[in-house]
Amino acid sequence: MTNAIRAGHEPANRVPNVTVDFWLIKLMAVTMGETAADYLAVNLGLGLTVTSMIMSAILAVAIAIQFSMKRYVPSAYWAAVVLISIVGTLVTDNLVDNFGVPLDVTTIGFSIALFLTFLGWYALERTLSIHTIFTTRREALYWLAILFTFALGTAAGDLIAERMELGYLSTALLFAGVIAAIALAYYRGGMNAILAFWLAYIVTRPLGASLGDLLSQPVEYGGLGFGTIYTSLLFLGAIVVIVTYMTPSARPERDEDSPSREAIDRR
Asked: How far apart are the C-alpha atoms of 247 and 210, rounded to whole Å?
């Protein structure tokens, strides 16, 4: 039995509640993930391989810090999300640009990988609730799923944008419409909450990427011409402000469907 349970404390959830703030920061994080990856790989001339190695190493440190917290700490959690957004983008870009894997193949491949992650998660834990991430195993499965959602969102977004040739604004509106349909299905159609959450989580990636490209790309390519560095700094600054605002109110959380203390002791 753990010391925390002996002392009568409930285990702390290590990820945040799903609120408006959550979705706002998530959208900004994926937008920054797109523009920051482009800036490092293209504008700085590091290339996809070197950029991927550097960002993966930084992500590993951020994930280690996140795991060490044993509770939800906004600064550690959202730093990991921003970095995993960048790395997830780079994973797909490497497969497509460096290894020549078609976008439809990467989209299907990451869909299967994400499905298998959820399947293994449920087989081990008997729940996919994001309100009960209070063991190392659940947190590891959570972050693996997050990585695959970013890689899948990148692949699916690029596939639709290239095949349909809609342009950045129209593509963003398309994915915003998909998210609105998911929200409607959840609030009015009785869609399962876990399914609705993960579908929306995936779709915010291509929505953010489209917004990032709209802001950063040159006018002649259909963008607004702000550039990748200014767009990245803009969203990074906004994320820092919101996370700083959220931090004093962050509290450990425990969902009503959490297992008993005895069950936790056996993990």
From this structure: 29
Check: CB of residue 58 under 8 Å from CB of residue 83.
Answer: yes
Residues 6+ apart with CB under 8 A from 71: 12, 13, 14, 252
The segments of the chain whose pLDDT lies below 70 read: 1-10, 248-267
Residue 59 in contact with residue 84, Cβ under 8 Å? yes
What pLDDT, on a 0 to 100 scale, did the predictor assign at position 9? 60
Core vs surface per residue 198-210: b (16+ CB within 10 A) or e: bbbbbbbbbbbbb
What are the structure tokens assigned to 81, written together?
């999300």
User: Is 77 among the domain residues?
Assistant: yes
For 232, list phi and psi in degrees, rounded to 5: -65, -45
Q: Name residues whose C-beta falls within 8 Å of residue 248's C-beta, 6 or more positions apart in sequence.
A: none
Domain that holds residue 52: 10-246
